[in-house]
Amino acid sequence: MSDIAAESYAHTNRLIHETSPYLLQHAHNPVDWYPWSDEAFARARAEDKPILLSIGYSACHWCHVLMHESFENEETAAIMNREYVSIKVDREERPDVDALYMRATIAMTGGGGWPMTVFLTPDGAPFLAGTYFPPVARHGLPGFPTLLTNVARWYATSRDEVEQQAQAMREIYQAERERTIPIPPGLLEDGASALDPSTLARAANADLDDFDPREGGTRGAPKFPHALGLDFLLRMEQRRRSSGAAQAGAEGLRDDLLPLVTLTLDKMAAGGIYDQIGGGFHRYSTDAIWLVPHFEKMLYDNALLAPVYLRAWQLTGEARYRRICEETLDYILREMTDPSGAFYSAQDADSEGVEGKFYVWTPAELRAILGEDDAALAQLVWGVSERGNFEGQNILHVARDVEDAASALGVAPEEARAALARAREKLYAARSQRVWPGRDDKAITAWNAWALRAFAEAAQALNRDDYRAATLKNADFLLATMLRAGRLLRVWRQGQARLDAYLEDYAALANALLSVYALTGEPRYFTAARELCDDLPRRFWDEETQSFFDTAADHERLIGRPRELSDNVTPSGASQACEALLRLAALTGESRYTDLAERALLPLVPIMLRSPGGFGRYLAALDDLIGPFYEVALVGAADDARLAPLRAAVANHYQPRMALAWGEPSEPSAAPVVPLLADRGLVAGAPAAYVCQRFVCQRPVTSPDELRALLEG
Questions:
Q1: pLDDT category, 5, cuts 50, 70, 90?
Q2: CA-to-CA distance for 558 and 327, rounded, in angstroms?
Q3: Based on the domain organization, do 647 and 572 belong to the same domain?
Q4: What does pLDDT average to over the chain?
Q5: By three-state DSSP, how is residue 284 classified?
Q6: 209 lies in which domain range?
């Protein structure tokens, strides 16, 4: 497998000294690129030149197209070098820069995306923005060379107009930086309490209104796998199935909640968006039926989707959801894991310059690799035809179930299942001989943390030693490599960690480490998570606006300070911070963590109800805050066989509102590292489970059945 690397050209620019694979792709362009740096802005000021800012990422198909069409073109590069100071940014390394200029792009054009092309004044204020521009005018877009020439002329001859547009954006950034979110008096517009459990059901039902009743997911195309929303809806189904206080608010839930969620999970797993041969999900589906994906594979999609399938299995008992979870995590282990334990960021959509070439098949290829009989079965199951479903070739998808295909071919179902398993292995081996898509082999702290949490929770629920080993190796890598002098770093590649981390990195890692602690019982992971959570208010909380910002208070000064007040495809830093704070409050009993989470969450509840699809992780945190939240302490020696059934009872039970601590019985004279374990002892010499809420505990129990009953109540 080949990693993404810069091709060898006669030119070499400043990007050659960067570590980002995306920047290195452009290191031999004839463009005189700068990385984001003071040097670039100083030159723009000294020469009074506008800045051309180009933002993208390594797995972005249209970023590659723009590079080949324009940035490798000598004449286009000459215009850029003469008229501009050109800066190239990897959006994954610098989400702050990306967020600020995406805000401008959306404001100026009504839409956004990558590659992003933004024209700035020398102080960084945007005055014109767009996304992809072709080399010659087409589809209503100007040719890129023409655009470059016209913008340079506008900047030189109509400076007042340029400055007016730039000033308008400066004012927008300033207003957004200072905007406060009114703290409601605990009541919503209709008089209901924001902390009433019925609020959650209202949000869930509103979210379901946008679901496609035939294909799952949101209506229309493209279709994105909204892991966060699905995860929240599974939480609500768990509430429905609970008893007592845990069920409060679930009475108003729509009856079709679980059918719509499982429809979505099934359609995604059967579609071309899922890699039927190698496991793992592609970025999104370009159509409304999950068939034709945008072929890039991102770590974050797979890290966030695997736990959704895990929880669906825990909730329903359906083995197919466990299989997709395991195949997805196995894909990460096999293709996206560095020897250090770090997880890589992405695999490209393209190979040999063609999008999707690595993943598609013809009937002749299947016959040559599998033989006539197995190929006939594979073609039926995976919808392979001579006509094809993608540019004359075939994206594999589950067109018929194995039993139906076996019946059509007159084959016993068990023989068909064995043949299909053989076919997967043979096709994967054959595909491995193709030119692999490029791989972005940098590690991003937040993305690694999402994968770390997925592996920790899967190791606990599925009792897989390889997942446990991956969990420990990645956790120790992050703690040893990405923490430096008490400060967290954002990215790592080939032995070098760099760039200050963001709110999402701190919060995601804190959450992941709490899950690692729940798996291992090792207090050092709890301690590290607590230290990260204690950093959240110091670095990211703003008293004036009563909210979390995405960059630390001492971060590099930019044209604005980004603050994400909703979730997207990935969870926002603020929603993850609220979740981590509430989990930590349950383990420590310290109300300061709950108070901060409540201050961040409550002002957003009215917006969550209006647009629940954009607040999946926020709603999960609100679910934690509303409760009941279970504090579970398991006490016993790690090598005591009687402890294992209690641990299994917790691991196999889907209880999303829960924090778990376990360890040896505490000595009266020594306070444990994890306060929840304080004064917890064995019961009649046997390991025991203490189930508490706000540090008020039920009587300790020693049997798995009793423990499960307490977790349902």
A1: very low
A2: 42
A3: no
A4: 94
A5: strand
A6: 198-351+440-626
